[in-house]
Amino acid sequence: MTTIEKLTGQCACGAVSFTARGPFRDGLACHCETCRRQSGHFIVATTAEPGRLAVHETGELAWYQATPHARRGFCRTCGSLLFWEPADQAYMAIMLGSVDDPGDIRLAGHIFVREKGVYYDIADGLPARDTE
Length: 132
Description:
41% strand
């Protein structure tokens, strides 16, 4: 866990913004095919409890049921990927690329590495798992 107590962030066009209160987990890079296809590369996210996340938007937040196990929140205007919400667990993943200042949140490891793109290597020495 990190020491940062609050995160703020927004999509690229500013139509969707959010405030989240900690505790936050360090970032995990997800290399699954769905994340890569939706974002254009792999994603890195932290997590917060759903009741500790406030979304401020004007009807532009949309949800896509990417798999039976999770849905993804994005801005319908600019397409920015913002959130990932599992169907069977009580947390919300927040895409670190959308965060204004991540404070001391750092990359802690990689998940779904067996699905990573063939065009890059993971060579940072952090823990890497084939599953979540």
